[in-house]
Fold this protein.
Amino acid sequence: METVRVLIIDDEKVIREGVARALADRGFVIAKAESGERGIEMIEEQGFDIVLLDLMMPGIDGFGVLEWIGKNSPRTEVIVITGFATVSKAVTAMKQGAFDFVGKPFTPDYIRIVVDRAVDKIRLEAEAERLREERILSMEAIQNEQSLLKTVFGCMVEAVLITNPSSVVVHHNPAAIKILEIQTDPVVGKPLAASIKNDGVVQMVGEAISKKMVVSREFVPGNISRRYLRAHCSPVISGGGTVLGSVTTFEDVSTQKQIDRMKSDFVAMVAHELKSPLASIEQMIYALQINCKFEEANACNKLHNRMTVRTRDLLRLIENLLNLSKLESGTVVFNLEPTSGHEIIRDIVEVTKPQAEGKNITINFNPCPEEWSFNVDYDHIRTAIMNIVSNAVKYTPEGGTLDVSTSLSGGFANMVFKDSGIGIGTDDLKHIFDRFYRVKGKATRHITGSGLGLSLVKEVVEAHQGYIDVQSVPDQGTTFTLSFPVVEVKTPA
Ligand code: ATP
Ligand code: MG
């Protein structure tokens, strides 16, 4: 509180001086007025917290001043100064709003006690006022926050379901009823299972609460509603670690899924449509090559060879596109059969040799002594290994080598493809399994490709519970290792 301002109104100078002296050590601002009129004037001009007021004065007396203060300066506390004979008047004055009275003659101590009490009262009132204002402000803040939350909650497109730790619904937003196609009414206060007839949701909420972690699920149409829903359930955990309940959001991803499907269907369709005409073109080139007249054969052959290579590239791209889109859509049915690892590699090495010899690249195959087999889809695995081997030949300059070897360790068979090619820099290495990623540089400028090969290899390897690893040093070579669980090992006699 600021400095207390005190005004003494009394027509007797001794009293004015006496009161002022008594209060001198209190640190107040003290002013004096010798009449009621002057007192009113000063209050009007300067404002006072406490007025010590003589009742008996010529002109406007104490009662007149008191009445004026009551009307014009209600916060000012009035202490009446009165002669002994007029105590009853002092009482009347208090009834009219004076805070206290001091009888004449008075001791300085008594004046101080009464004035101190008035100061306390003023301070308490100021404090009470401050608290009242604070409360009003915080109530407003709470109300604003509540209405803000309510608005956000109500306008959300996603469904929100809030439960207590026993999976009883305690709150939900309007979107929940729409998206989850809930028929029961009311939902609040009932177990989740009463409104949503799907074990998956109940399990998800139970899991989030018991394991204290976020659980995410997708629900296909027909599971909960006619929509494709993606849900995330988070446990609500108190500062002390107790689970207070759960908040689950459901997002309608039907359109997204539909677009994905359309995209995959489109790619599959285009790839399929391209495949058959290209295959016949390849056949026709071959026929042309054979029919070419002997003397023209040299010139023709070069052209024919180039046509064959480009056509094969295209056919491989289409094969990869088709396989990838199938793998992505989850429609691939793997035909798993125990397959000999060494046989599949030998076959690919044989097939690739002519292409490698064209670049004077030597392919060495060093199988481990044990014969082993793994449970795989032959066509998919063959395409994957083929991609690795043809990359090695493609990205290794004339005269290089490709060493293929195998080993067994910890229930896995490792196929190692080590080439002496152009290598891959660290920054590119992070991305080579990304779809359509190709290293751009001097060494790769004239090598054609689509950047799909390795992403397909990774999908296939992982679909067979295998791993793929790559190590590379620019200008020295690259080593790809594919590891698969083995099902049978035959140790040489
Ligand atoms: P595609 O296989 O679809 O015809 P691509 O060979 O360019 O095209 P990926 O097989 O996915 O695509 O390989 C991605 C990139 O990784 C290649 O463009 C190449 O830059 C690099 N790369 C792959 N294998 C090797 C390797 N053995 N040596 C050096 N770089 C390689
Ligand atoms: Mg490739």
Observations:
- DSSP finds 14 helices and 18 strands in the chain.
- Residues 108-155 form the longest helix (48 residues).
